[in-house]
Amino acid sequence: MRDVLLILSGYLLGSLPWGYWLPRVVTGANIRTVGSGNTGAANVWRTQGFKLGLAVALLDVAKGLVATLLGLWLGSELVGLLAGIAALVGHWRPLFMGFARGGKIVATTGGVALALAPLATLAVAVVWISTFLVTRYTSVASLLSTAALPLFALLFGASWLVVAFTAGAAVAIFALHRANIARLLNGTENRFELRRRTKGASSSRGAPPASPSSERAARPRLRAPDPAARRTRE
Known about the structure:
This protein has one domain (2-186). By secondary structure, the chain is mainly alpha-helical. The protein starts with a helix and ends with a helix. The protein has helices at residues 2-14, 18-26, 41-48, 50-74, 77-92, 106-116, 118-135, 138-155, 160-176, 178-186, 199-206, 212-218, 227-233. It is globular. α7 packs antiparallel against α8.
């Protein structure tokens, strides 16, 4: 009975829709009506800013991490794993949003993996950050890092249960990113702009070119010399 309660607790933790709640509270935005309509951290970042997106990402990681650690602490590796999977299901179809579409489980998978295979997860985090900085596609970074997770889990000696979980999570994440993969192949996937535009630069780029008449008006006019003043000087 205790194990069942831990697994149910994992689902409830995963159902906390931080990507929906935080924008509602902080900016008043309904994240399901802007951008991709997804409640994940990437859509929050793109539409509401980096700080809010980072907060959502950390909270989504925490959901998977806490759910799995509780299962490991009060149960076993299998219970922790099942509680983590339940958190992923909750993130995907959250109870507190009426089982509507949630996020694509990338950050929450990172939290579960951090509890089960911390070294492999830290290595994958480096892969994610490096890929994103090079490509500026969160989808590419998520897909590559997810595909690398089972390999790093094997490399760092994780159990077969953990390796099987990371492989299954990778398959699920690829399936949830079908639309992103299609846009990448079509060249229409959104890229992040890391540089903040300055007001001066944007105003100068957006200003219309000056007309010849305005240029003539801006030139100083030369007055003819006064003959009386010339005679006085002589």
